[in-house]
Amino acid sequence: MNLADELHALAEQAPVTSMPPDLFNRARRRHRWRLAAAVAAMFLIVLGGYAVTLPDLHPLPAAAGPAGIPLTVADPPLWTDEIQESPPGPAALVFRGPAVPARSPFRAYATPTAVVGLTRDVYRVVYPSQSTTALSPDGRTLLLPQLNSPTDLRAAHWRTDALDLVTGRSRRLATGFAPIGWSVDGKHALLVQPNRWNDPDASAATVNDMIVSVVAWPSGQTEWSVHVARPSAVEGEGNYPVALSPDGASLAVSTSQELRVYGRDGAIRWKRPLTGQDVLAGPAAWRDDGRIALARRPGVANSFDTGDATLTFVDARTGDESPGPHLPTVRKVFSLQVVAWRGDTAYAVARTQPAPMSEDIHASLIRLTPGASSPQTMLAPAGVEDLNVATDYVDRMRTAGSPSYGLSLTGLTAAALPAAGPAVAAAALVVLIWWLRRRRIERSAMPMP
Amino acid sequence: MGVAEVRSSFEEYVQARTPALLRIAYLVTGNAHDAEDLVQAALERAATRWQHLTDPEAYLRRVIYTKSISWWRSRRVRPPETLTATLPERPVEADHDTRLAVLSALHRLTRKQRAVLVLRYYEDRTEVEAAILLGVSTGTIKSQTRHALQRLRELAPELAELMVDAR
């Protein structure tokens, strides 16, 4: 005998047994279960990945406290709930910039904008079509510019929606107009329709003209509007320095190196030339005491260059220079917008950039106290290019609590995709290896003699 | 082909070929219990794709061999072995029963060596066929065969005459 014979003889001692009668069904059933278990396991892994990546999916809403502007602001994550899905209540401030992440390529034509609650640190996001949002002084209503067409900028496609931050419901305030801001008392909204929308090929003399509409709030009725000629506008299409008078009957506009005051009939009451880059100092520039504030930046050549800004005043009845409170100079800003007054103390949003035409823009809320040597910074969040505050509460700062972001399924998906990517890639690799291995097995299982 | 037909075809095959598969499994596992488990596992695997198999016999042999040498089975099935300076004592029965000596010696080989020996000397496969079946190179088959035979000679010198023609 040789080894082969011995092996054959040995093999004859193999057990004589039969396989279970339901082997076929049982095997297939088990196979299906294994597949289902593999899918479930993959799902759990991805879900686990989400949980690890996203530290706080269901934060408890912070308890309501006194109304005020938070001293610090958090960066809302990608999965932050949208206002319409979960209204935050009245807002303390609205901000935009790199701190607010864009959610998906489908939002490419929108400006990611974050809203922070007035009495608690509830964060929500909204995606208006451009950046000129306007928060009402009481923080309850947010005016949003919306464009129905991503490519066609004609006025017919524009509208201004008034979003109620308490109910989440949106109301169309006007068609053909975008928001600029609110009157100081919150009784009027200011809207704009640039001539460029209707006549993009107009001559340089008229292409920057605009219609400013004064809309009563909450009725939504257009009380009056003016056509503002801007033959040599240097502000740029999206920059509309206007301020409504405290009685709502006049409108101050700075443009084309002029400061003008319009009446309800659309006629210019008076105008005066502006020097250099002097500009109307924001939506609250028209003070109760009958003076209009200008932001003067001597030595600055272009409107977007940074420079030291000082507030000066003119008489609202005549346009003549009028001495006002001596407020500290704001260093190295390209924009200074007074948003509220408390007596002679001004609250303003200052915007600066480290280099001319840089995209690295920082916005901060500052207080200008008469006699102070320098402005006091109230809020300077990182990654924020512009902000609106509820001006009724601008002098009430509150300690920031634990932020509550809510949970947006759309945002969660967007946030989870990067985390899911490696998991899916790993799963695909495992499946590929398994498939190649199986293929090799089945191919090699060739008929043998 | 409907599921009923597939099942019928599968059951016919199982009925006819299980004993042959069990013999291979018995040789590569070294005991009846594991042989049954191995054949059943291979058949279950084949059942899930039966309608796609052009040569079920070859597929099942392949699964049996590869499963028998896969690490998760080897951990469970192969008994621990401690290497010593002297050869292990031969079973007393081996003096009287060559077959038991072969079985005992086979059991002391690695699973891959055992699979190679079974393929080459039980199934009488060529080196190329064995290499294809195990998914390794022919060089590996050659070296594994050489090592397996050498090991058998060391473990059971009295079987040397069985391996005269085995090269």
Summed up, what is this model?
By secondary structure, chain A is α+β, with helices and mostly antiparallel strands. Chain A is built from four helices and 26 strands. In chain A, the strands form seven sheets. A four-stranded antiparallel sheet of chain A has the order 4-3-2-25, with no helix packed on it. Chain A has a four-stranded antiparallel sheet with strand order 5-6-7-8, with no helix packed on it. In chain A, strands 9-10-11-12 form a four-stranded antiparallel sheet.
How would you describe the overall organization of this protein?
The complex is a heterodimer of chains A (449) and B (167). The longest helix of chain A is centred in the last third of the chain and has 36 residues. In chain A, strands 4-3-2-25 form a four-stranded antiparallel beta sheet, with no helix packed on it. Chain A has a four-stranded antiparallel beta sheet with strand order 5-6-7-8, with no helix packed on it. In chain A, helix 2 packs antiparallel against helix 4. The two termini of chain A are 24 Å apart. Chain A is elongated, with a radius of gyration of 32 Å. By secondary structure, chain A is an alpha+beta fold. Chain A is built from four helices and 26 strands. Chain A has a domain of 114 residues: Lipocalin (Beta Barrel). Chain B is mostly helical and 167 residues long.
Topology record:
The complex is a heterodimer of chains A (449) and B (167).
Chain A: H1 3-11, H2 23-53, E1 69-70, E2 91-96, E3 113-117, E4 123-126, E5 134-135, E6 141-147, E7 158-164, E8 170-175, E9 178-182, E10 188-194, H3 195-198, E11 210-216, E12 222-228, E13 242-244, E14 250-255, E15 258-263, E16 268-273, E17 279-280, E18 291-296, E19 307-315, E20 330-333, E21 335-342, E22 345-352, E23 362-368, E24 376-379, E25 386-389, E26 397-398, H4 409-444
Parallel strand pairs in A: 1-26
Antiparallel strand pairs in A: 2-3, 2-25, 3-4, 5-6, 6-7, 7-8, 9-10, 10-11, 11-12, 13-14, 14-15, 15-16, 17-18, 18-19, 19-20, 21-22, 22-23, 23-24
Chain B: H1 3-29, H2 32-47, H3 56-69, H4 71-77, H5 98-107, H6 111-122, H7 127-134, H8 138-155
Helix pairs in contact in B: 1-2, 1-3, 1-6, 2-3, 6-8, 7-8
